[in-house]
Specification:
This protein is of the alpha/beta class. The protein has 20 helices and 20 strands. The mean pLDDT is 93.
Length: 585
C-alpha cells in the first residue's frame, strides 16, 4: 500500500493570485513547487529565450572559442568524440554541424556501447594519432578521462573537453580535472556559471552559440534557435530537471520542433505516427528518444546521428524505419527479460530482500538498466541486474529516493572490478563469484525499512470534480513542460461512485469508468495500469460479488478515493473534461 501525503505549504495566495492573475488552484500548485515570489512565478509561467545565460559565463569558454577559431583558420583536423546515448548523439550533431558551417575540417567518432564502453578511450586516441588528427573535442564525456587526455597530449594533440557529468574526487575531496587545453563543464568548482543542471547537448549548444558570436553569418539567429530545438530533445531524454534554463530550453524547443525542417526528425515523427501539432515532452522522452537510443543499444549510435544529418527524404525514411524497428526489438527484448526477472524474484523468494540483485546471463547488457528500472518501479526497491559480457559480468542498477545507490555500493568496492554512478543509478563490472556475496552483503547492511519501501504519493490539492472546468485545465498547461523536477500536479477526490466500467486499449491495459462524486458531478475517468490488480483490490476490499456487479454493469457499493490529473477529451467536435486516474484506494 502506498503512503499518500497532502502538501500543505503556507503562502499569501491572495497576493499571488492578484499579482499574477491566476486561479487559486494554479497558485497552490506553484507554491508546492517552491515558487512564492510573484515575480519569480511570472518568469516561470512565461520563460523567455532572452533569459538564457551567456555562454561566456562558462569557465574556459573564451579559451575554447580562441582555440577552435585558430584551428579553423589553419585548417587543422578536428575530431569530435561523442557518446552513444541521445545526449551524446545530439551533442555531436550540434558541434559537427556548427563547425562544418564555419569551414572546419571536422569529423566525429562515437564509441561502441559494448566494445568500447562509455566515453573517449585509448583506441580512439590511438586512431586519432594514426590519422593525424590535430584536435580532439569531446562532448557529453571526457571529464573523468585523465589517462586518455594525458596520452593524447603526449602525442601532441590539442584536447578540449565539454561535459556535464560529475568530476572525480579523491578521498580527501580534491577534485581531479584532466589536463586538457580547455575544459567546459558547469560542475567545475571554480566555474561561475549560474546553472549547473545542463545536459551535455546544452553545454555543446552553449559552445556553438559562443563560437558563432565571433562570426558574421546570415541567418545566425534562426540557426541558433534550430540548435535549441535539438537541445530540448537531449534535455528531456537525459532526464535533466526541467527548471531554470532547462525549462526555457524545453518550453521553446518544443515549439520550434513543431515547425522543424530537419528531414530526419520529420521522417522519424512520420514513421512513429507523431502529430507534430501536439508534440510534447512525452513524445521526446518516450518515442523519439528511445528510437535514437536503440541504435546505440543494439547497433551503432552513428545511425541516429546519420538520421539527424540526412540530406534526402528517402535516406531519412530508411534510417527512421530502421531505428523504429530497432526500438521495437529493444522493447520486445525488454518485456521478455522483465518477465524473466520477475520469475526469478518470485521463484527464489527474493521479495524478502530489500535490495534486489538479479543475474540473467543471456540478457543483452545494453538493456540491463531498463530492466532494473522496471523492476524498481514494480517492487519499489533498489534493483541491480547483472548480465554476461565479453569481459567480466556487467551490471546496471536503479534506485529509489531513500537509497543512495553509489554511496552504498562504494562501501563494498572490493567486490567490483569497476564501479561508477550516482545516487539513483550505477553501472558496474564484477566477477561471477561475487554476485551472491554482493546480494547478501547489501541486504545484511541495508538501513532500508518496510516503510521506506512503500511508494510515496504526494498530492497537491484535494480538488472535488466540481471545481474542474475547461478554463482550469487550459490554465494548468502553463505549468508545462512536465518532467523531472516539474512533475504534473496531482489532485485527489474522495468517495467516487463507479456508474459504469469497461476495459479498453489494444492490450486491454486500460479501464474507462463513469464516476460521480457525492455532490452529483459526473465525468469519465481513465486508468492505464494493471486491470487485474485493480479488480483484485476491489475483490479484496469489497468482496467478489462487487467485482461481478462492477463487470456486469450492475449498481455497486464501491467508493473509490483517487489521485488524478484532468484533461480535455475532444471527439467529433465535442469537448468534455475527463480525469486520468494515477492511484486509487
Amino acid at each position: 500500500m502506498e503512503n499518500w501525503f497532502l502538501k500543505n505549504i503556507k503562502a499569501d495566495f491572495e497576493l499571488i493570485m492578484k499579482e499574477c492573475g491566476i486561479s487559486e488552484v494554479l497558485a497552490r500548485c506553484l507554491v508546492n513547487r517552491g515558487l512564492t515570489d510573484p515575480e519569480k512565478i511570472k518568469v516561470f509561467l512565461n520563460p523567455s529565450i532572452d533569459d538564457l545565460y551567456s555562454p561566456f559565463l562558462l569557465k574556459d569558454m573564451e579559451k575554447t572559442c580562441d582555440i577552435l577559431q585558430e584551428k579553423i583558420i589553419l585548417g587543422k583536423n578536428i575530431r569530435i568524440v561523442g557518446d552513444y546515448d541521445v545526449d551524446g548523439v545530439v551533442s555531436t550533431y550540434i558541434l559537427y554541424r556548427t563547425l562544418k558551417m564555419l569551414g572546419a575540417n571536422v569529423d566525429y567518432e562515437i564509441p561502441d556501447r559494448i566494445n568500447d564502453g562509455y566515453g573517449i578511450n585509448m583506441r580512439i586516441v590511438e586512431e586519432a594519432k594514426e590519422q593525424e588528427i590535430d584536435t580532439l573535442l569531446t562532448c557529453d564525456n571526457g571529464i573523468v578521462a585523465a589517462e586518455q587526455v594525458r596520452k593524447a597530449k603526449e602525442y601532441g594533440m590539442t584536447v578540449i573537453i565539454t561535459d556535464h557529468h560529475n568530476l572525480l574526487a579523491t578521498e580527501d575531496n580534491t577534485v581531479l580535472i584532466p589536463e586538457a587545453d580547455a575544459v567546459i563543464n558547469p560542475k567545475q568548482p571554480d566555474c561561475p556559471y549560474p546553472f549547473k543542471g545542463l545536459c551535455g547537448a546544452a553545454v555543446a549548444y552553449k559552445l556553438a552559440v559562443g563560437l558563432l558570436s565571433r562570426y558574421d553569418i546570415t541567418g545566425k539567429e534562426e540557426y541558433e534557435k534550430e540548435l535549441l530545438s535539438y537541445t530540448a530533445i537531449a534535455t528531456v531524454c537525459d532526464v535533466m530537471e526541467l527548471v531554470d534554463e532547462n525549462r526555457i530550453i524545453v518550453k521553446h524547443g518544443l515549439d520550434l520542433l513543431k515547425n522543424t525542417s530537419n528531414i530526419g526528425l520529420l521522417a522519424l515523427m512520420d514513421v512513429c505516427q507523431i502529430n507534430k501539432e501536439f508534440l510534447s515532452a512525452f513524445h521526446l522522452g518516450f518515442i523519439i528518444g528511445p528510437c535514437l537510443n536503440a541504435s546505440g543499444r543494439l547497433d551503432t549510435a552513428k545511425k541516429g546521428l546519420k538520421l539527424l544529418l540526412a540530406d534526402t527524404r528517402s535516406e531519412a525514411l530508411e534510417l527512421a524505419t530502421e531505428l523504429r524497428n530497432l526500438n521495437e526489438t529493444r522493447k520486445n527484448m525488454t518485456e521478455k527479460y522483465v518477465e524473466k526477472a520477475i520469475e526469478l524474484i518470485e521463484k527464489d523468494n527474493m521479495l524478502c530482500d530489500k535490495v534486489l540483485v538479479i543475474y540473467i546471463p543471456e540478457c543483452h547488457e545494453s538493456i540491463a538498466g531498463i530492466i532494473a528500472g522496471r523492476i524498481r518501479e514494480r517492487y519499489h526497491r533498489p534493483a541491480i541486474v547483472f548480465t554476461d559480457s565479453t569481459e567480466y559480468i556487467k551490471g546496471s542498477g536503479r534506485s529509489i529516493n531513500e537509497y543512495n545507490m553509489i554511496e552504498e555500493l562504494s562501501k563494498h568496492r572490493d567486490l567490483f572490478v569497476k564501479l561508477g554512478g550516482h545516487p539513483m543509478a550505477a553501472g558496474m563490472s564484477i566477477l561471477p563469484e561475487n554476485i551472491d556475496i554482493l546480494r547478501k552483503t547489501l541486504n545484511e547492511s541495508t538501513f532500508l525499512t518496510e516503510d521506506m519501501l512503500r511508494p510515496r504519493v504526494t498530492i497537491d490539492i484535494l480538488l472535488p470534480l466540481g471545481y474542474l472546468s475547461e478554463e482550469l485545465v487550459k490554465e494548468l498547461r502553463l505549468l508545462e513542460p512536465f518532467g523531472n523536477g516539474n512533475s504534473k500536479p496531482l489532485f485527489a477526490e474522495k468517495d467516487l461512485t463507479i456508474k459504469s466500467l469497461m476495459i479498453i486499449g489494444n492490450n486491454s491495459n486500460g479501464i474507462k469508468m463513469r464516476v460521480r462524486n457525492k455532490y452529483g458531478r459526473e465525468m469519465d475517468a481513465l486508468y492505464f495500469g494493471d486491470p487485474d490488480k485493480f479488480f483484485n483490490y476491489i475483490g479484496e476490499t469489497y468482496g467478489p460479488d462487487e467485482v461481478w456487479r462492477l463487470k456486469t454493469g450492475r449498481g455497486t457499493n464501491i467508493k473509490l478515493t483517487v489521485t488524478y490529473y484532468p484533461n480535455i477529451n475532444e471527439y467529433n467536435g465535442y469537448k468534455s473534461i475527463q480525469i486520468m486516474i494515477q492511484n486509487y484506494r
